TrEMBL record:
Residues 125-248 form the Pyrrolo-quinoline quinone repeat domain. Gene3D superfamilies: TolB, C-terminal domain (2.120.10.30). It comes from the Bacteria. It holds the Pfam family PQQ_2. This is Pyrrolo-quinoline quinone repeat domain-containing protein. InterPro entries: 6-blade_b-propeller_TolB-like (IPR011042), PQQ_rpt_dom (IPR002372).
Length: 289
């Protein structure tokens, strides 16, 4: 373990950091954007100073007014400095900046979670940027994934094939996307814009069985990095060999000692391979599925 936060003295008097969920590295590699889904807060942490430098949301109090969120998910800083996130129980997508007390951009209808983009979204749990400047939105209700732009134009929308609780879909290579299925046994699916499954990892027994995986992300060599939440591990899958090629954590055993994890629910490689860093680049195509 190379770095961990918070440690004694990192939080200012009155500050809290509870129930962290997903975390992404900022494009400049200097900060982390941590989403505290069940504490209704998004927090930016400066890696060098170990201090909170920005926060949106009211800790412990959900809502939809100024400085309020309701189960935000997958907050990520874009190259322009704004932070985009899915606001699950507010049924909307938001873009936030430090200078504004409310979203500078949003899509969806407050309190109306149904699949009818861009007017409504069915409990959106991911809004990931694409290299073309659009966004990939994952909707829990109905297992939908949509490609949209900031104006709300919908380019395509498909059911994630064979899933019941899709989580955090993102692009792994041009025109191909990956999503985790947050179930037990869980699965990972690579699919295209027609909704056709190109590759699937879904063992129902043995060491490969997943238990509520929540985030899968493509790596430059074509492998897939995955947090397997309830199995308390992070793994790398090789789709060409159809096997696990790396693991951190002890399967099914939660812990805090070196080599152990406890319900990991978010991950991101550090630059130059972090998601925000490579999203503007064309990913390599290291072979077929």
């Amino acid at each position: 373990m190379l770095w961990q936060w918070p440690q004694p003295g990192d939080l200012e008097p009155g500050q809290t950091f509870t129930i962290p969920d997903d975390v992404f590295v900022t494009p400049d590699g200097k900060s982390l954007i941590a989403t505290q889904e069940d504490d209704f807060v998004i927090t930016e942490i400066d890696i060098a100073t170990r201090k909170i430098v920005w926060r949106y949301g009211t800790p412990g109090a959900h809502g939809s007014g100024p400085n309020q969120l309701w189960n935000p998910d997958d907050a990520m800083k874009l190259p322009d400095g704004s932070v985009v996130a899915a606001d699950i129980k507010n049924c909307r997508l938001v873009d936030l900046v430090p200078s504004s007390p409310g979203p500078v951009w949003s899509l969806g209808t407050l309190g109306s979670c149904a699949h009818e983009p861009p007017a409504r979204f069915g409990s959106p749990n991911g809004v990931f940027p694409l290299p073309n400047g659009h966004f990939l939105v994952t909707e829990i209700n109905g297992a939908w994934v949509d490609e949209i732009d900031r104006s709300g134009h919908v380019y395509w929308a498909v059911h994630v094939p064979g899933t019941t609780y899709p989580s955090d879909a993102s692009e792994v290579r041009p025109g191909q996307y990956v999503a985790a299925d947050y179930t037990n046994p869980g699965q990972v699916v690579v699919f295209d814009q027609s909704g056709r499954a190109l590759w699937r990892w879904n063992p129902t027994s043995g060491e490969g069985r997943l238990n509520h995986p929540s985030l899968a992300e493509g790596l430059p060599n074509g492998d897939i990095l995955l947090n397997d939440d309830a199995n308390h591990r992070v793994i790398v899958l090789d789709p060409r060999q159809n096997r696990i090629v790396w693991q951190y954590g002890h399967t099914g055993v939660a812990g805090r000692a070196p080599g152990y994890l406890n319900t990991p629910d978010g991950l991101d490689p550090v630059p130059p391979h972090s998601f925000a860093t490579v999203m503007g680049l064309t990913r390599p195509t290291p072979g077929s599925w």
